[in-house]
Amino acid sequence: MNKWFYFNLLLLAAGIWQITEHSRFPAHVIFGAAGLLLFLFNWTRHAVFSTIRNTPNRQTKIKLANLSKKIVPYHRWIGTTTLIIILIHASLTINLFGFAWHNVKLLSGLIAGILLIAMVVSGWMRLFRSTGRKRMIHIWLGISLFIFISIHIGL
Ligand code: HEM
Ligand code: HEM
């Protein structure tokens, strides 16, 4: 399996761990968790594409390519919904705790939120006029987003 499958599983496990650390499940945590799941669903596309490119097994290539084709129409809406859910998560959290620059959890979330906005914008730009450069931007934003979400969940 591609290394990204393991990275994704690790972040999912860390997310579930952090969520269960909360003794109650208030709305801001539920929205954060939903955003994490939807992000991981879309990001797994990277693991699938990397596997298609790297596997020597033709059968696996065909199976994954067909699966990927079925998901394509949902990808853009899942990505856009992730952003809406995370914006709700952010406003609920700021309402609850207030805004403080020294709150590292909030700061890491804020950077992840900004990257997510860029991710969704680059996705729509890519859909309307795809170029190799836009593809790389979409992927590198995804990798940065993955790193900042890991920091946000890990803190
Ligand atoms: C892709 C973006 C994001 C994801 C996937 C995400 C996910 C999560 C999850 C699952 C939690 C609950 C588990 C935990 O306490 O660690 C959480 C908590 C938190 N998030 Fe986010 N978040 C994102 C963006 C943001 C943004 C934009 C902000 C604020 C502007 C933010 C602020 C916070 C804060 C302050 C907490 C701690 C809440 C508490 O201790 O009760 N997050 N986030
Ligand atoms: C959470 C947000 C998102 C994530 C994590 C994400 C991730 C990805 C990944 C990993 C790929 C495959 C990269 C490759 O070409 O190797 C991809 C492709 C693509 N994404 Fe996104 N994306 C997100 C949101 C969006 C949105 C909102 C759109 C809007 C239209 C979009 C449009 C596209 C398009 C057109 C492709 C190439 C076509 C294809 O899927 O084969 N993405 N995305």
Task: Characterise the protein shown here.
The chain has 155 residues and is an all-alpha fold. It contains five helices and no strands. The protein has helices at 3-21, 27-54, 58-97, 104-128, 132-154. The longest helix has 40 residues, at 58-97. It starts with a helix and ends with a helix. The structure holds protoporphyrin IX containing FE (2 copies). One protoporphyrin IX containing FE binds next to helix 1, helix 2, helix 3, helix 4 and helix 5.
Chain-averaged pLDDT: 95
Sheet/helix structural class: mainly alpha
Proportion of residues in helical segments? over 70%
- Which blocks of ≥5 consecutive residues have pLDDT under 50? none
Q: Based on CA inertia axes, which overall geometry fits?
A: globular
The whole-angstrom Rg is 16 Å
Proportion in β-strands? under 5%
Secondary-structure element string: HHHHH
Distance between the termini: 28 Å
**Tally of helical runs:** 5
